[in-house]
Amino acid sequence: MQQFIRKIGVILLTTVLLLCLFDWAYTEVYVRSIPRNKTKYVLGLKDQKIDYVFLGSSRVENHIDTQLIKTLTSKKVLNLGIQGAKLDDNYLLLQLLIHNNVKIGKLFLQVDYIFNTESISTIVSSESLPYIRKNEIIRNHLEKSNPDYLAYYYLPFYRYQVNDYKIGFREFFSSVIGKKSKTDFTDGFVPKQVKFIKNNNFKLPDSIIAQNKVFNQIDQLCKDKNIEVVYFCAPFCSTVRQSDYIDKLKRKIPSLKDYSKTLDDTLFYNCGHLNEEGAKVFTRMLVKDCMQHEK
Question: Model confidence over 226-235: pLDDT tens digits?
Fold first, then answer.
């Protein structure tokens, strides 16, 4: 019996040691490797000024042509739109920028149906997990917002196992060999193709929540740090914009710049995303409305 217990103990100890070794190896690779996502890119931005910073989901990443803004304004621009991102993701990235002493001339935050969501997404939160023990902003943010925080922080290698699709072996190996992302993070704009896919099943919510605490935190942080912020809603195709949701949203955010009904369907990739030509048209609208009179 004692021999059996001893063998079990050796197996358990070996397993724990291996998990600790894997945890250390993965973390060191992610900390030292080149950025392969926008979260890691933001972690490397320090002590600089960016005139215009755009935060949001794919409706920023696919819609804001940063190079066009640079050409029209001669300003420094960064598109931090991320596929599937929610307001909680935007809030974390904003905190990281401020913590890294990145001076933001004007912040643009895209708000639409995501106002109805206060929960975290699995995008930025999973991308930030390799740095949970090394970055106080990430640690404090996840402690408050992620129900699995204690397991992620204390159990060796657990965060990599649970989030394998984002920070598992495939991403680890790509980081080891220094494989670059297809996205230029200094720009951040990812255009969509020309074709229009009419997705009739997509629609805006019928109702709106009373308030969004994460939105309120973003708004308060911008006030505390004297950051000028522009809230805007990007265009939707004609079948989606028949909803009155955006009118309800404008009552929640009186300063919201509403572009939801501005563009023709020929400029869309699908009902929620513009094609490359549409992105250029929309970007020019934003420049005209929010930037062209600035020195």
Answer: 999 999 999 9
The CA–CA distances, whole Å, from 58 to 136, 148, 188 equal 27, 26, 11
Task: State which H helix or E strand residue 176 sits in.
Answer: helix 169-176
Gap between the Cα atoms of 84 and 81, Å rounded: 9
Domain range for 50 is 2-290
Q: Which long-range contacts (CB under 8 A, 24 or more apart) does 98-101 make?
A: 98/221, 98/225, 99/136, 99/137, 100/42, 100/43, 100/45, 100/46, 100/47, 101/46, 101/47
Quick one: which of 192, 188, 232, 204 has its CA closest to 93? 188
Chain length of the chain: 295
Domain assignment present for residue 273? The answer is yes
Between β-strands 102-110 and 77-81, what pairing exists: parallel, antiparallel or unpaired? unpaired
Q: What is the CATH number of the domain that holds 52?
A: 3.40.50
**Does this model's pTM top 0.90?**
yes
